[in-house]
Amino acid sequence: MKLKKLSFLLPIFFIRLVSAEDCSITNLGGCLAQKFFEFLLGILNAPIQPLLDLVYDLLTKPVSIDIFSGVWGVIIYILSMFYGLLLLYVGFRFLFSGYSVEQREKAKKTLAEVIIMMVLVQASFYLYSLVIELTSSVTTVIFNMVEKDFFLLTVDDITNIGLELLLVMPYVLSILITLILLVLRYMIVSVGVIFFALGIFLYFIEPLKNYGRLIIHFLFATILATFFYSIIFLASSKLLEVGAFEHFKILVMIGAFTLVNIATILIALFVVIKSALKVAAPVMKVVSVVQAVT
Q: Which residues have C-beta within 8 Å of that of residue 228, sequence separation ≥ 6?
């Protein structure tokens, strides 16, 4: 159906396109074709540009976590109630260690871990913000190396123009999917400042260490995702300099966004599954022991 709708354009495809400065009475057909396609692609780029601007902002601008600073303060207040219990536990370990050098060393190690945990939890908001700022800065530098018109429909040659007209809807769809995933990432990272403090606290509690690791790994993977996205877009733009890809720009553009979407899902699944297996390992040991006893 699309081919039938575009069949009236076929005669124009056989006209050689020329640049504006080369226009003259001798190549009027090429100039008209060039202007026609520029006008047509300009219309198609008009709704795409706002989507691309939003993608750029979500990729490069730091996630705002200030709106959750009040909730973070409440979480820190709740966690600080356990500091006294932990210090009391360490004191009992010192008290009952007696003359055992090994037990005293373990108590000292526990005390050091509790102190480190307290410092990190109290500074978690600023540490989290620092990671976001650094990731945003590096992502911006890399993303700005991508050609400005890489994401836009352009008048390059007949093959590109034909594919762009045919595949403009799949391209817009791939951008929309990426936008949805980036919005979800923004929400997770923004509220993650609360769970980051909780993750640090759980990480230093031996029975809950794997749960803390799961939270921290997931948040860090989500924050650093934009860095890998910028590399994917940069590598994709460089592919257009290869002769085999220069006539299929729209396919490279769709492939770049699709790869970003697939990478998002795979990274999330990898982190969750890997951490979940570590969390499940102690439970499985307990189950196996119970089964052996019964």
A: 263, 267
**What mean pLDDT is predicted for residues 12-38?**
49
Question: Which is it for the CA torsion 242, 245, 249, 254, positive or negative?
Answer: negative
Structural domain span for residue 46 = 2-293
Length reported for the chain: 294
- Per-residue pLDDT of 211-247, as tens digits, reads 888 899 889 989 999 999 999 999 988 888 877 777 7
Helix boundaries (H) for the chain: 2-5, 10-13, 28-60, 69-96, 101-122, 124-143, 158-203, 209-239, 249-293
Q: What are 171-185's pLDDT values in tens digits? A: 889 999 999 999 999
CA–CA distance from 268 to each of 59, 142, 190, 281 (Å)?
A: 17, 23, 17, 20
Burial level of 43, CB count in 10 A (0-12/13-18/19+)?
Answer: exposed
Number of structural domains, the chain? 1
Amino acid at position 3, single letter: L
Residue 197 to residue 203: CA distance in whole angstroms: 10
d(CA 74, CA 80): 10
**pTM to 2 decimal places:** 0.76
Q: Which of 141, 89, 122, 87 is nearest to 201 (CA)?
A: 122
